[in-house]
Amino acid sequence: MAAVRAERARELAGRLREEMDGVRRLQESIIPRGIHMPEGYRIAARYEPAQVGVVGDNPVVMAGGDYYDIFSPDDRTLVLLVGDASGHGLKACMSIMAMHTLIRMLAGDRFRDTAAFVTEVNNRLCENSIIQGGGGFITLFYAAIDTRTHVMEWTTAGHPLPLLHTPGGEVRPVGDGSEGGLPLGVAPGLDYDAARLELPAGGRVLLYTDGLADAFPLDAADGHAAFGVGGICAALRACRGRPTEATLDHLFETSHAFTRGAGRVDDTSVVLVDRTAEG
Questions:
Q1: Please, which pLDDT band fits residue 54 given cuts at 50, 70 and 90?
Q2: Residue 253: exposure state from Cβ atoms within 10 A (0-12, 13-18, ≥19)
Q3: Which is it for the CA torsion 97, 253, 159, 219, positive or negative?
């Protein structure tokens, strides 16, 4: 009987791994490939899924609700966004795919008016039964950079603020925390505000989901000691002068090292944008 139960447990773990892997592949299918870089900019982005342990077997990759996108709707606008749907698994994945489809459908000048754009996305998502079921929601940071004036207009819907790394070495949030509104899908008719920031030549801005900041070692005496914004800022400062991709590598390596090899328990999306000194 023990042997039969062990075999059934292995079969169940295998099916669970297959289902999770299928959902993860579906999610990763909308991650942008071959990012277009406007003149004067360098961009690196990465999505890394979480891991979940299966009793008596190896960890499996867990599909989550993270999402990022980068595209140019016209010859002078660079759109950046990161989002995070509540929960994990199929529902979170389908919520993100619904938002991705909606964002790509809303073409035209609305891309540059970030407040109006996020307001419209929220209203549409509040009509979506997948997101509304079970009290789901999506946090979103949406930005549009004018690549001629280098002004970034942005709107946040319950999402962590990106970090600006100035040419002088200072790392700080792009806002003071008073900007933004509730996550998407909570209620229709909400108003969202826009803020502006001029990206300095030689500066960089980091967009991320909370999986990066919330990384923590599972075997720590204080299980609530997370990598945090402080860890992200320190990793960025250590990479002053490094290329964009190398900085992203260091950020993920440092975060992973902080967990002492346990991996992040939430999936993570990161977008790093450099405005080159010559731009």
A1: very low
A2: exposed
A3: positive
